[in-house]
């Protein structure tokens, strides 16, 4: 077992046992859900430590998925995995196209918006810090940035900002640690 590292990402969760032969129900956080089984180097987080496991079989079942943990052939043992997070190494994720980002890459970035009554010709002059991206929500129509106030933000409000590149989100720079949004402060 090892300690969870900064390079570890939660990719799913075991929600309970399935059947009597060591299978478990899986809730995948990947899109599409099946991508969870393409990583091949799975670890389960138990009490702050990681233990390596192998899913030797998996299949779709209803609206979710089930998988068999190699070496586990008993429902009672499978029950002991209920609630554990499935962790993968961030560097095992496939590369994305230019302008696409994984959610974990956006978390912690500063979010900059605009003053509502700005009349300057200098585009950076009306920028205000709204806070930092805490996490994202999948709504079906589009993802939503949950922006929490930070020490230097303009106020103490939490904001829900649609993640719509080219519309609401005008720029993302991982190098600079910023997301620029066309999101005006409420008057």
From TrEMBL:
Pfam hit, one: RimM
Membrane-spanning residues: none
Cross-referenced InterPro entries: PRC_barrel-like_sf, RimM, RimM_N, RimM_N_sf, Transl_B-barrel_sf
Any one Gene Ontology cellular component term annotated for this protein: ribosome
Single GO term (MF): ribosome binding
Domain RimM N-terminal: residue ranges: 11-90
Gene3D superfamilies: PRC-barrel domain, RimM
GO BP term, example: ribosomal small subunit biogenesis
Keywords, sorted A to Z: Chaperone, Cytoplasm, Ribosome biogenesis, rRNA processing
Compartment list: Cytoplasm
Domain of life where this protein originates: Bacteria
Primary site of residence: cytoplasm
Record remark: domains: The PRC barrel domain binds ribosomal protein uS19.
Quaternary state and interactors: Binds ribosomal protein uS19.
Cited function: An accessory protein needed during the final step in the assembly of 30S ribosomal subunit, possibly for assembly of the head region. Essential for efficient processing of 16S rRNA. May be needed both before and after RbfA during the maturation of 16S rRNA. It has affinity for free ribosomal 30S subunits but not for 70S ribosomes.
PANTHER family per record: RIBOSOME MATURATION FACTOR RIMM (PTHR33692)
Family: Belongs to the RimM family.
Record protein name field: Ribosome maturation factor RimM
């Amino acid at each position: 077992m090892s300690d969870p590292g900064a390079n570890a990402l939660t990719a799913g969760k075991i929600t309970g046992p399935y059947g009597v032969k060591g299978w478990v129900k899986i809730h995948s956080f990947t899109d599409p859900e099946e991508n969870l089984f393409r990583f091949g180097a799975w670890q389960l987080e138990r009490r702050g430590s990681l233990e390596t496991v192998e899913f030797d079989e998996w299949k779709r079942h209803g609206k979710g998925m089930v998988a068999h943990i190699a070496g586990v052939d008993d429902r009672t043992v499978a029950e002991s995995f209920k609630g554990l997070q499935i962790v993968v190494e961030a560097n095992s994720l496939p590369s994305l196209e230019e302008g696409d980002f994984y959610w974990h890459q956006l978390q912690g970035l500063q979010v900059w918006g605009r003053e509502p009554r700005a009349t300057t010709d200098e585009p950076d002059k009306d920028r205000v810090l709204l806070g930092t991206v805490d996490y994202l929500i999948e709504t079906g129509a589009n993802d939503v940035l949950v922006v929490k106030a930070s020490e230097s933000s303009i106020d103490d409000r939490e904001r829900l900002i649609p993640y719509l590149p080219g519309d609401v989100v005008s720029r993302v720079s991982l190098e600079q640690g910023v997301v620029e949004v066309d999101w005006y402060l409420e008057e």
